Amino acid sequence: MSKITIQEIADLAGVNKATVSRVINGNRNISEKTRLKVEAIMKQHNYVPNSIARGLAFNKTFTVGFCSDYTDKRAFANPFFYKVLQGIEEIVYNHDHMFLMMSDHDHDNKKSQSTFERVVVEHRVDGLIIPNSLLNERNYELLVKHEMPYVVTGENMLSKDGVPWVDIDNVQAGQILTEHLIDLGCREIMIYAGGAAAERDKFIADRLKGYRKTMENHRLEVRIIEQAEVLKSLYGSESSESAVEGRPEALICCTHEQLFEILDFENGNPLLSEIALATFDDFPMSKYMKHPVHFVEVDLEMMGKAAASMLFSLMNKEPGVPKSVSIATRIGS
Amino acid sequence: MSKITIQEIADLAGVNKATVSRVINGNRNISEKTRLKVEAIMKQHNYVPNSIARGLAFNKTFTVGFCSDYTDKRAFANPFFYKVLQGIEEIVYNHDHMFLMMSDHDHDNKKSQSTFERVVVEHRVDGLIIPNSLLNERNYELLVKHEMPYVVTGENMLSKDGVPWVDIDNVQAGQILTEHLIDLGCREIMIYAGGAAAERDKFIADRLKGYRKTMENHRLEVRIIEQAEVLKSLYGSESSESAVEGRPEALICCTHEQLFEILDFENGNPLLSEIALATFDDFPMSKYMKHPVHFVEVDLEMMGKAAASMLFSLMNKEPGVPKSVSIATRIGS
DNA sequence: CTGAAAGCGCTAACAA
DNA sequence: TTGTTAGCGCTTTCAG
Lengths: 333, 333
Description:
Chains A, B: Keywords: DNA-binding, Transcription, Transcription regulation. Two copies of one chain form a homodimer. Chain A is about 45% helix and about 15% strand. The N and C termini of chain A lie far apart (about 50 Å). Chain A has helices at about 5-15, 15-25, 30-45, 50-60, 75, 80-95, 115-120, 135-145, 170-185, 195-200, 200-215, 230-235, 240-245, 255-265, 300-315; strands at about 65-70, 100-105, 125-130, 150-155, 165-170, 190, 225, 250-255, 275-280, 295, 325, 330. Chain A has a six-stranded parallel sheet with strand order 2-1-3-4-5-11. In chain A, strands 7-6-8-9-10-12 form a six-stranded mixed sheet, with helices on both faces. By secondary structure, chain A is α/β, with parallel strands linked by helices. At the A-B interface, helix 4, helix 6, strand 2 and helix 7 of A face helix 4, helix 6, strand 2 and helix 7 of B. The structure holds a DNA duplex.
C-alpha cells in the first residue's frame, strides 16, 4: 500500500514525472491547468511523496531532533517538562518538518556510539536541540565537524563562544525568589548551592548570583551551604545552643534533587518543618505537600518555541541570529 | 564533512563499490584480505554509510517510533513514565535500530495531518509503539492500510481483534490494592470509577473488576462512585447524619486525575483527611504529601522491553508471536 | 511550460 | 570472490 510512486502519478496524469515533482514542490513554472490536473490525481490516490527518496535527492531529512538526557533529573523528573516539547513541536510543524525525540545519556564508555552520535554522524536530522548537560567537549566537536545546526537548552557550561542557547533567566529567577521570601517576612535566608555544582552548572551559579545580589541590596547576610550536612548538623540531635541560633528561616534549593534531599531529611526531623522551603523550576505539587514549597514559574512552552525558532534560523543560515535567549520567570503558586 | 561516499571508499581501496557494500553488510562471500583492506580504509576516513540512501535501497528506515499522547495524563503527568522509554530503547539499540519519539494528540480537526499520520503515511519508521489512547478507528485503519507493524501500550479499547498490546495487569492491580487496604484494616472501601470512563477505558473496567472480586471474596460491600460529587456530598457542609454514616474508610481512585480531583476537594474539607487514599501507577511523591496515598508499583522498564520485543517480532514476521502481554504489579511504598 | 536524462548513495541481481 | 549494471523514488539541470 502507498506503493504509489511519482511515476505512476505522472502516467495517470499523462505528464512527465518531472512535472509532478514541480507541482509537489510548488514550482511556479507550470500551467494552472496541468497543475490542477496533477493535484487532482494526487489527491484521488492519496499520493504522498516518499520522504526517504526526497531526502536523498535534497540531501535533507526535513526533520529536527530533540535529544533529552536520561540522567538530567531537572528535565524528566519534572512532569511539566513536556510543555517545552509542545512549544518546540508547534514551531516545527509550522515549518513543515518532523519532530523526532531521542534520549541519551552522557555515558563515558565509548564502547558503542551514543544515540546522539549516531544521529549526528548519520545525518538523521537537519538540526538538533539538546540539553546543556549533553554538550560536552566531545559532542561539541562532533556537531561542529558534521556542521550540524543545534541549539542548547540551558546555558552552556562549555567554555566555547558562539554556542547558541535558550534558557530561563536564572539570575532574575534567583532575585525574585529571594525577594518573595523577604516579602514573606524572612530575614535569615540560606541558599543550598553546592560549590562543585556551581562550578559545573552555570544555572546554579546564576541562581546564586541573583540570590546574593538581592540579599546584599537588603543588607541581609548571605549564607551559602554547599552540602546538606551543614544544614543537617544545625538540626541534628546533638544540636548545641549555637546550632539552634544558626537555623535559618528559609532555605532556597537550587535544584529539585537538593530539595528532595532536604525533604527526605525532614521526615526524621520535625524541627525542619519550621523552615520555609523554596526552589526553582515549576513545582506545582507544592500545594499537596506536607511541607509547601515556594517556587518560580517558567513559561516552558515559550522556551521551546524560542529554541525551535532559533534552530530554524540557524538551519536557514539567516544572518544576524541572536546567539542566546533568556526567558524571565515569575513566582508561582 | 562526512561527505565521503561508498564510491570514494571503493576507489581508495581499489575495489568496486559493490564490494564495499558487501563488507558493510557483512556478506560472507568476500576474501578476508579485501575485507580487511576495505575496513581499514573505512575506519581511516571514518566513513559512515548514508542512512537515507540505505533506507531508499532497502526500503526500510531502521527506525522504530514511539508516539506519546500529549493529552494522556496517565503518561506524561507521570514523571516515571520515562522508564518505559528506557526499556524500549534498550531493546531497540540491541537490534541496532534508531528510536524516535514523537508526540501527538488525538486532535479531531482533520485540517492538518497529525504527526502520527504523517509518520505512518510517509513510512518514516519501520514499526511503531503507540499508546492505547491514540488507537482510534481512524488510526487503526491507517496502520492496517499501510501495513505498519505496531504495538499498543495499554490494552486496546477498540473492538478489534488481533491488536497487539502490552499493559500492566489491571485486574491484578485492582486486587492487590484492595487487598492492601483490607490488610490495613479498612472495611468500607469505595472506588471512584466513572461509568462513562469505565466504558471508554478498558483499564478502568479492569481495575474495577479486581476491586469487585476482592471485595466480594471478603464479603465486603462494593461501593462504586462515578462522580466526585457523590463523595463530596458526603463531606459537604450540610452533611446529614446519614452522610456521616456513609463515609468510607478508604477510597481508590482509578486515575491520577481522579486522585487530584479528590485532593483538591480535600484542601477545603479537612474531614476528608481521615480517609485512606489509593491509586494506580507509581506515585512515589506520596511520602512528601500531606495526605499519603497508597499505590501500586509497576515495572515500567519491563513494560517497555516487552512492547519493543513484541514489535520486533512483528516486524520480522516471526510466527507465533503472542498478541498481548500483561505485567503483574505490586504494592509500592 | 514541459520532457528527457542524469544523479543523490546504496543494494542486489547477474555475470565473469 | 569480484565487477557490472540496474534500479530504489525523487529532484534538477538542460533542451525543446
